[in-house]
Design goal:
alpha+beta, 3-stranded antiparallel sheet, 3 helices, 60% helix, 15% strand
Length: 92
């Protein structure tokens, strides 16, 4: 893929993601790639342009519904833990 083709695919991918995620952010999951120095299966919330870049590069893909659910549950567990710590500190 030459540079012109790469940027054409990148623009198309960005446009598709912007339609699908009008809020400007989406969740992506890293894939096993020799070029990417990341752990496969890691879910990240990133901007649409960054997601498009990673997807075209082949280092990430859009997260599945199961991954979205697990990510949301993890965030809620972290929030609950932080609330509990904050309450404990305020009681001292």
């Amino acid at each position: 893929m030459n540079v012109q083709q790469y940027y054409a695919v990148l623009r198309t991918t960005q446009a598709d993601l912007r339609q699908k995620f009008p809020q400007g952010f989406c969740l992506v999951t890293s894939v096993d790639s020799l070029d990417a120095n990341s752990t496969p299966g890691t879910v990240s919330e990133v901007s649409v342009p960054m997601a498009a870049h990673w997807i075209v590069k082949g280092s990430h893909r859009l997260a599945t519904e199961q991954e979205l659910q697990a990510f949301a549950e993890g965030l809620e567990a972290t929030r609950a833990r932080l609330r509990a710590v904050s309450l404990e500190e305020n009681r001292k």
